[in-house]
Design brief:
The protein has 224 residues and is an alpha+beta fold. It has two domains: 71 residues, no CATH class; 149 residues, no CATH class. Helices cover 28% and strands 35% of the residues. It is built from eight helices and eleven strands. It has a four-stranded antiparallel β-sheet with strand order 3-4-5-6. Strands 9-8-11 form a three-stranded mixed β-sheet. Strands 1-2 form a two-stranded antiparallel ribbon. Helix 7 packs across helix 8. The mean pLDDT is 89.
């Protein structure tokens, strides 16, 4: 007997454990008699047990980000708060100036905690993510970033990589990409996941690049 979760097939026992991992209460009457006996998955079990990438993705979604982070011992690398001033349009079409503090925090997860027990973990590195809030809903988001790319985006090629030089603002800026040439951005407007970048003139690069901390701090003029 098979169980389908998010269009992905699992054997019955695995599917039951994933349901227990995802739901605090029994989601299906057919599982009611055995619900209390089902053991939910831990992140370590998921990383060891699921070789199929799609099945592992579904399993991690069932675990949820909060429980995942509680099991992998994230370490705070940098935390910064920006005081922002932006303009919103009210339901009546009036312009409203809003001031608020926006806090970003960069975390590191050691490869030992993240890949403990995982076979074929040769070459695995420490992982990093930045935590930030949606400015309109206060919902928190965790975005994984590539630390060396963050570093290279904000330093010269001659600089040696150092974790101590990574900042939370660099990390969140890195998550935004554009083909507008550096120095040619007039302003940046952000509405949720939608990023609008206005160039000074039609001068672009032939590749997609990441924004720098300086650009994020100085050119982001409005967001909602």
């Amino acid at each position: 007997m098979k169980i389908i979760i998010d269009n992905t097939e699992f054997d019955y026992n695995t599917g039951c454990r994933l349901f227990k991992t995802k739901y605090a209460e029994c989601p299906n009457d057919s599982l009611a008699e055995i619900w209390n006996d089902i053991i939910p998955y831990t992140f370590k079990e998921i990383s060891q047990s699921f070789q199929n990438i799609e099945q592992r993705r579904v399993a991690i979604n069932c675990l949820g980000m909060e429980r995942l982070l509680s099991e992998i011992n994230p370490i705070s690398v940098d935390k910064q708060t920006l005081h922002k001033r932006t303009t919103w349009v009210s339901e009546n079409g009036e312009l409203i100036v809003k001031e608020f503090n926006d806090t970003y925090e960069l975390f590191k997860v050691s490869k030992e905690d993240l890949f403990d027990g995982v076979s074929q973990n040769w070459g695995m590195q420490d992982a990093y993510y930045v935590k930030c809030k949606d400015t309109s809903t206060d919902r928190e988001y965790l975005i994984w970033v590539e630390p060396r790319s963050v570093f290279n985006t904000n330093n010269t090629p001659k600089d040696w990589y150092s974790e101590s030089k990574l900042t939370a603002i660099q990390a969140v800026a890195w998550t935004i990409q554009t083909n507008v040439k550096k120095g040619n951005i007039e302003k940046i407007i952000r509405q949720g996941d939608c990023i609008l970048i206005k160039p000074k003139d039609k001068e672009f690069v032939s590749y997609t690049r990441h924004l720098t901390e300086e650009e994020y701090r100085e050119l982001l003029v409005a967001e909602s």
